[in-house]
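Researcher: Good morning. I'm working through a list of sequences from a screen, and I'd like to move beyond sequence-only analysis. For each chain I'm collecting a predicted structure so we can compare shapes side by side. This is the next one on the list. No need for commentary yet; just the structure.
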Amino acid sequence: MELTAVLTPAEEGGYIALNPETGTTPQGETVEEALANLKEATALYLSEFPLPGTRHPLVTMFSVPEHA
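Model: Good morning. C-alpha cells for this chain:
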C-alpha cells in the first residue's frame, strides 16, 4: 500500500512527519528516521483502524502575501 508522507522541519530540530490519510505524526532527528517512525506509527494505526479504500490526497502549494 502506498501512502503519502509530508515532512517539515521541527522548530527544536529534526523533522515532523505526517501521513494525511491516517493523521499519524511522528518525529525524527533525520529525514530517514522520521520516515521510519512514520511507517511504524502508520502500520500500528492501520492494524487498529483499516482504511476502507485508499485515495491519495491532492498535495499542492500556494502563496500568501508576506506582511512587512
